Amino acid sequence: MKAQSHGIISLGLIFAAVILAAIAIFRVSWVPGVIYLAVCGIASIALLYAYCAKCPCRDQCGHVFPGKMARIFKTRRPPYTIFELVVTGLILILFIGLPQIWLYRYFGLFIAFWVMIVIAVIEIRTVVCRVCSNTYCPGKNL
């Protein structure tokens, strides 16, 4: 239960960071803001398919919501392929890297974004990953 609380908190922080990034982008122009939010939505679905749908622990997911949402996909069997891991990494880079150009223009939003991302990663690595039994996760051995 503790891991699930931390999992929900970490996802909430990531979601809030994405919203802050979108705000920074919308302050410059609405077109890239809409594109960023659309890319994040599509990337989230791709992440669920490429990673979460293959996780053997999705029924006890520490993040709760991705495990439940991954049920929309047919159960996929681990291990992860190199392609799926690359897609997962690129998606994470997209969420974080894409808005940096706009965030940098608004230093307060830039700092808040990174504080939330860092706290979320610490939550995930120190609590959620520790109780997860997905031996196929490349982050498990870090």
Q: Can you offer a commentary on this structure?
A:
This protein has 6 helices and no strands. The protein has 142 residues and is mainly alpha-helical.
Main pleated sheet: none
How far from one another are the termini? 23 Å
Number of helices: 6
Give the CA-based shape. Answer: globular
Q: In angstroms, what is the radius of gyration?
A: 15 Å
Strand content: under 5%
Number of DSSP-assigned strands? 0
Tell me the helix content: 55-70%
Helix/strand order: HHHHHH
Quick structural summary:
This protein is mostly helical and 142 residues long. The chain has helices spanning 2-28, 30-50, 65-69, 82-97, 100-103, 107-131.
How are the SSEs ordered, and which strands pair?
Blueprint: H1 2-28, H2 30-50, H3 65-69, H4 82-97, H5 100-103, H6 107-131
Helix pairs in contact: 1-2, 1-6, 2-4
Task: Output the keywords.
142 residues; mainly alpha; 6 helices; 69% helix; globular
